[in-house]
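Work Package 3 (structural annotation) set out to generate three-dimensional models for the target panel prioritized at the project kickoff. During this period the team completed the workflow that converts sequence records into discrete structure tokens, so that structures can be stored uniformly alongside our sequence database. As a representative example, we reproduce one entry of 264 residues exactly as it appears in the project archive.
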Amino acid sequence: MPEACTQQANSATAWYLWRGDIFRVPLSTLQRMKRQGGWDLHDVAAESRALFFIRPRAQSEYAGSLTSEWLRKWDLLTPYTNPPHMYRIPANVEYLGQFAMDTAYIPPREHSESCLVYKRCIYNTMHVFLSTTNEPLELRIARLWPNTDLETVWQNVHETPVSGTVKVTWYQAIHDIVSKHERRHKIRLVPSDLCGHCNRTDTLQHRLTECGEGPQIWEWTRQRLASILRTDWRRIPPDWLLRPTFKMWPPQRRRAVCGYLPTL
């Protein structure tokens, strides 16, 4: 797919996801695996390249077709051993040159391998291959909280037994993209970073546990969590709301705790 078309598709996806929101999670982050802080969103460029790779392979199975003859002539039905030197392939069939480059990294389909699994393998390879061309950006929350075990955070988020809508809201809160005075003040959208109710700094933690009915709701939640964990409620830190780094056994207990936190 041409780069211009890929950009248009990504722009349409971003508009659909955010609908004009000021603070967003970049598409490159959403396309990461869930354990890396993403949402397994499909990479349009990798998807189109994977589909392109599958098409010649499918056409090669039909004897007598032009593509089949070309692939056999240039020995492209097996992995290409020296991708930088594809002097045999003419410039007017450049797309076959790209196909030859990709065969060096993707083995032929095994007899025991299903079509779906093979297609997923091709997509994952293309996604990793394209991702390495640009150095991945460090997550903003990794810079804000460098000592946080983010892999455990994402595991807890995605294994939480709540609806998709609630899970997405928690994901946005952890990524710190919920609009509040503190962030809007930094880009000069509001004159102050103070809360309009109590004149304290308007952070997300402040809204959830310190302002309005937040303290009462949080204390009730801590009491419920303490009963599940059989511990003192004062040992339940507020950080669990935005940085759920806890590890518990058995998994049912951990999921029960996770089920309470995002509903605040």
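The chain has a mean pLDDT of 86.
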